[in-house]
Amino acid sequence: MPDQEFIPVEICCSNYNIELNFIRSLEEYGLISISYRESVAFIQKEDVPQLEQFSRMYYELNINVEGIDALRNLLDKIRKLQDEKEALRARLRIYE
Fold first, then answer.
1. How many alpha carbons fall within 13 Å on the CB side of residue 82?
2. Is a pLDDT exceeding 50 seen at residue 30?
3. What is the maximum span of the chain, computed from C-alpha positions, in angstroms?
4. Residue 51: per-residue pLDDT
5. Domain limits, the chain
């Protein structure tokens, strides 16, 4: 596990001013994944933008973790539908 791909969870907590329990709750719901090395918890760098988004939902909008999970699922479905719409639109351009 190269260090540049992972960030210690404690650093994320202090940098983003979030609670460790919040990150653990996100992990329990499968919203982020935490890796452990020598009893230190790490988050993948690629998960940091989502962590930022989830923390804004939680702290600024007062959305609980269950709501965050539901919103993420809805946003994923919207993205898939948009991708499908664009693919169909591209196929229709052939006939124009």
1. 6
2. yes
3. 60
4. 94
5. 3-93
